[in-house]
Amino acid sequence: MTTSTRAIVSLVRANGELEVAIRSQPVPTPADDEVLIRVVAAPVNPADIKLLFGGLSAEDLTVVDETVQAKLSSAQLLALSGRLDVPLPVGNEGAGLVVAAGAASAAQALLHRYVSVAAGGMFSDYRVARAADCIMLPADVSAAQGAAGWINPLTALAMVETMQREGHHALVLTAAASNLGQMLNRLCQADAIPLVNVVRSAAQVDLLRSLGAAHVCNSSDPDFDAQLVDALAATGATLAFDATGGGALAGRILRAMERALVRSGQGYSRYGSTTLKQLYFFGGLDPSPVVFERDFGMAWAMGGWLLQPRLATFGADRVAAFKRRVAADLLTIFKADVDGIMPLSGLLSPAHFTTFMQLKTGGKMLVSPALG
Ligand SMILES: NC(=O)c1ccc[n+]([C@@H]2O[C@H](COP(=O)([O-])OP(=O)(O)OC[C@H]3O[C@@H](n4cnc5c(N)ncnc54)[C@H](OP(=O)(O)O)[C@@H]3O)[C@@H](O)[C@H]2O)c1
């Protein structure tokens, strides 16, 4: 086996220069409870694009000698002040073959098996990960099929778990035609959980309806607020997960929840309904500031929601049960939509920027280090 591994590394210097390139490093040796994975495929997720290019768009980037370069403004630099002069490996999740394993039995059990994992730094030839964090792929699932088989599947399951633990009975999801949204739709249909989908185009309404979604509201329609109140009244959803994280959408959802609760016959109070309306931001697809009129009573909350810290609160047994379900349903409920596959150098190629930086509804681009 080779002794060095290539990895995509993103660096923001204190002088405002961004640099993204392939760097070679020694292949790491797994500790007792770790495995060494030869990465076969890793998806480019929205969070990876942000880490790679610091939130800049394709037009801001130039490529010189297979190195992406850009200059950040002082405001952009301030937002990234926590990562200055620290080279960051990129690629949240991916799948590959376990080629070496530590002495622990959990690690040895994965030797020569294909696994998916969200270990970070997956845009590389080799990556070590804790055996306990891996999902062993079933024999009929290829590494390409399992590449996006960790973060979004576990996010869908963790959203439902959050709903149950926090005493809600139905969910709202924005950007609901996304890969994650389609998984959550299939999961909620399988588990009979009412789900209100918020999308921003008629094409996305049609897509989700074709997947069997009962409630789909289009934020571009003039009667969106009325659509939302009707769907919330029908489902009783008082918990929303907002992937946009910007603009007026969050406030409109909380206001619609309040109106649906009033419609449900709670007596009048000048302080609004007494039922907690909870909205979690879990993505940043819309970089504009969050704006809202506070016209939804006093029982409400907005906060952030992130997968890994949530999983930590659920406990190892529950997370292990999630992983078993993901493995069993990877080709059905948790099937990811893949658009194409490119080598590591594709992340540094303007020809590929337009494909993988679009964040549009449809397939994900996979990175395969073995290519090229
Ligand atoms: N917090 C966590 O732990 C966590 C975990 C997993 C995923 N996420 C987040 O979940 C979201 C979906 O991820 P994914 O992998 O499923 O994405 P994806 O498949 O790449 O889909 C992106 C979706 O976002 C929509 N979109 C893009 N910009 C938008 C905007 N400004 N307003 C409304 N919709 C917009 C696109 O619709 P169009 O076709 O209309 O552009 C598309 O449907 C991402 O924000 C991701 O970061 C967060």
Describe the structure.
The chain is of the alpha/beta class and 372 residues long. The protein has two domains: 4-149 and 336-367, Medium-chain alcohol dehydrogenases, catalytic domain (Quinone Oxidoreductase, Chain A, domain 1, Alpha-Beta Complex), CATH 3.90.180; 152-310, NAD(P)-binding Rossmann-like Domain (Rossmann fold). The chain is built from twelve helices and 18 strands. The strands form three sheets. Strands 3, 7, 8, 9, 10, 17 and 18 form a seven-stranded mixed beta sheet that branches. It has a six-stranded parallel beta sheet with strand order 13-12-11-14-15-16, with helices on both faces. Helix 5 (151-165) crosses helix 6 and helix 8 (224-235) packs across helix 9. The longest helix is centred in the middle third of the chain and has 15 residues, at 151-165. The radius of gyration is 22 Å and the shape is globular. The mean pLDDT is 96. NADP nicotinamide-adenine-dinucleotide phosphate is lined by residues 45-47, 151-152, 155, 175, 177-180, 200-201, 243-244, 282-283, 285-286, 305-307, 359-361. Residues 45-47, 151-152, 155, 175, 177-180, 200-201, 243-244, 282-283, 285-286, 305-307, 359-361 line the site of NADP nicotinamide-adenine-dinucleotide phosphate (NAP).
Main beta sheet: strand number and arrangement?
Answer: 7 strands, mixed
Q: Could you list the spans in which at least 5 consecutive residues all have pLDDT below 50?
A: none
CATH superfamily membership of the largest domain, which one? Answer: Medium-chain alcohol dehydrogenases, catalytic domain
Helix content: 25-40%
How many helices does DSSP assign? 12
User: What is the correct CATH architecture of the largest domain?
Assistant: Alpha-Beta Complex
Q: What does the overall shape look like?
A: globular
> If you consult CATH, what is the topology of the largest domain?
Quinone Oxidoreductase, Chain A, domain 1
Q: Ligands bound here? A: NADP nicotinamide-adenine-dinucleotide phosphate
DSSP, total strands: 18
Mean pLDDT: 96
Structural class category:
alpha/beta
Distance N terminus to C terminus?
Answer: 18 Å
